[in-house]
Amino acid sequence: MTTALRVSRRAFLAGSAAAVGGLSFGFHIPFSDAVAQEAAPEINAWVVVRPDDTVLIRIARSEMGQGTLTGLAQLVAEELDCDWSKVTTEYPTPGQNLARSRVWGNFSTGGSRGIRDSHDYVRKGGATARQMLIQAAADSWGVPVSECSAANSVIKHGPSGRTARYGEVAEKAAKITPPSDVTLKDPKDWKIAGKPLKRLDTAEKLTGKQVYGIDLKLPGMLNAAIKDCPVFGGRVKSFDAAAIQGRPGIKKVVPVGESAVAVVADTWWRAKSALDELPIVWDEGPNATVSSATIAEMLKEGLDAEHAVDGNRVGDARAAIASAAKKVEAVYSYPFQNHATMEPMNATALWTPDRCEVWTPTQNGEAALAATAEAAGLHPSKCDVHKIHLGGGFGRRGAVHDWVTQAVTIARQLPGTPVKLIWSREEDMLHGRYHPITQCKLTGALDDQGNLTGLHMRISGQSIIASIFPQNIQNGKDPAVFQGLNPGGAEAAIGYTIPNLLIDHAMRNTHVPPGFWRGVNLNQNAIYLECFIDELAHTTGQDPLEFRRKLMTQHPRHLAVLNAVAERVGWGTPPPAGIYRGLAQTMGYGSYVAACAEISVSDDGKLKIHRIVAATDPGHVVNPQQVAAQVEGSFVYGLSAALYGECTVASGRIEQENFDTYPVMRIDEMPAVEALIVPSGGFWGGVGEPTIAVAAPAVLNAIFAATGKRVRSIPIKHADLRKA
Fold this sequence. Notes:
This protein has 19 helices and 27 strands.
């Protein structure tokens, strides 16, 4: 696969159709007159077929290791009926998308939506292209199109046996009006999609040919390092540029907004080294007195506050609790966490008074374009963003593009010169958009038979939406807070039937900015609910699996993945000596997931996670090998967070500045993961994020089985796991 880093809009739109007789396919979408004059009437959208039968598929979503690029290409190629061995891909730019009335649709890649939100229209792109190719061949032969078929990039006329390659009829097909309606294949007939094909991006990553944003080089490029006020909300009071101006390679010292200073040099290391020596005086503002302790007290107050916003109400939970034969109560907490992507934030910007271009890893090219245009002081039509594969995203490179704003702001102060901004690891750790911090108080009502008759969950803590999209807060409610806890619907059904249920939220926002961290609110909500369900089961002396099953009779898909896990792990039979098990299930991102963890705890309290069995029902599976890899990778991320992930605050600033104080799982700590892929069809769910959410509660429930101790606060590293 090749990724073009600089492509002119004219060259892109014309493509190979005008230059070498290639074929462009798209939907019948009205484009501007300017675009129509630049290229053939049928403009390229998803597919280009070259004379040698090479098929170029354009991918609007971002590749960040999850395999979306290959999966989307499989869907297009399936409907196109092309030769998979000749498929290549490239990214269109958001500027091109804007110029063409958003023909590629949404560029956002997050929330496990890369395939589940675009499968329909990308498949139609491939099917439309196939029909045009067949029509072109049929017209050439003077035969009815109904007598022709296509397979493996070859069109065949049934009665005569004549054949034509896609590349041979591409030029003629380019002049055909696209069909207004196409029929998509039934997934049971898939030959390319649904198969464990090799990823298209592996070879270049293995050989080092793949260019990431941090690697990019442009002629005449300078490098920038930046330092922002360590306290969120603070600003730069003063800095002494003269103190470092004479150092080798230093080109300029520039302010960046009100809160940051950047040094521009011929190399990044020289810029960073000079920045470390630059005298900066900060005005840290009133947030300099905030600490983890003060934040915890604010959240604790919210647990019993009179006012809270309902997210899920069934029956009268308060009354059920008041009249219960037995009441069970517990308080859980979840900390700030950093995305900690392997590749820190970076962007290269080239600004002139007439145009601004940016090269950056981004999960949302259109959001990056908006940030570019605003910072550049130019209309979006005079800007563009060239998307590059991401060295990790996890939500950090999605909704907020602060590093792009900074890069353009710096480049404006050096007109006509490309400037690459790279955040140091410390800058990346200190200025993230953190997983929201919350606490949760759960109160359960049990009757004298041990049945759950009522449940109240009070969540106290941050709202991501209030921070990033405040216009979407309605009557004080952030619906994303209740992810995985809603009573039904396509996005997040709770999975249990509880006659009296109240789940509410006391919004308590801190000065530390929250963001969409992989798995988002499903992570802590699954811990809160699944661990408390486990507590209720043990309180009543019931088996955790059977206790859940009684509550799930009206939720067959939730129950199916839970049963699949229980059967594979052999829940009804005793585990090996010294091994203990814990269960968890949830639904999120349109998929149903469950997990069972097998762990041991030594006499001195050392935890070892031996095995995790996980089941996923995403409805349809485009590439089962990639889904399995996503599930396995999700446990690396989820278990790292559960074991170690915590950002604390002292004097208003984040204390963890690098991996020595923010560790991740080591390879020798990784359990064996058995991924059960059990698609039931009829819907499209996401993968990668859902199973993160069951990693921690499955392990936490297993820890209780092993030690008799409930760990109700993440990360586990703080817990004393010596047996009670």
